[in-house]
Amino acid sequence: MRTHPPLRWLALGAAIGVSVACSDSPSVTAPGSTALTESVSDAVATAIQDEYRAEQIYLRVLFDHGDVLPFYNVVVAEQRHSSSLAAIYERRGLETPQSQWSLDNVPRFATVALACAAGVVAEEENIAMYDRLLVGTLPVDVHNIFTSNRRASVERHLTAFQACR
Questions:
Q1: pTM (2 decimals)?
Q2: What is the pLDDT along the chain (165 residues), one digit of tens a residue?
Q3: For residue 65, what are the contacts with CB-CB under 8 A and spacing of at least 6?
Q4: Residue 15 and residue 137: Cα distance in Å, rounded?
Q5: In angstroms, rounded to a whole number, what is the distance separating the alpha carbons of residues 100 and 95?
Q6: What does residue 83 show for φ and ψ, rounded to 5 degrees?
């Protein structure tokens, strides 16, 4: 039995660029400060750990069941999401938190169908998390990344897992 997924799964995010949507929402503050308030820092930390967790769950499915869709495609997107959140820290000269998640501490699923059902729940929870985090006043870059990640979960990830059997 393999103890790690093939390196191609782990390296998928290495060459992926970060895209950020623009927004004129009144809940954003002007950029310029390199500091994150405690509440914004907590929000970004919550979001990045959630994206890390999803990435590891979907990698676990790939490890256990092979290159199955939609997991192969969604794991790439999750890596983009965590990279975009890491950029918030990097732009401010802050250390990016390490993932609390690994293939060893995420759930395993006996079938792809069970993994798909869990994917629906995970994406619904991710959307709800971003809904909560977007309520506060946020720097423009944080707001844009949260909005972009949420939109991808609503428009692509959730629908992919709902269609998955």
A1: 0.79
A2: 333 444 444 444 333 333 333 334 434 444 444 578 999 999 999 999 999 999 999 999 999 999 999 998 899 899 999 999 999 999 999 999 999 999 999 999 999 999 999 999 999 999 999 999 999 889 999 999 999 999 999 999 999 999 986
A3: 71, 109, 111, 112, 115
A4: 32
A5: 15
A6: -65, -40
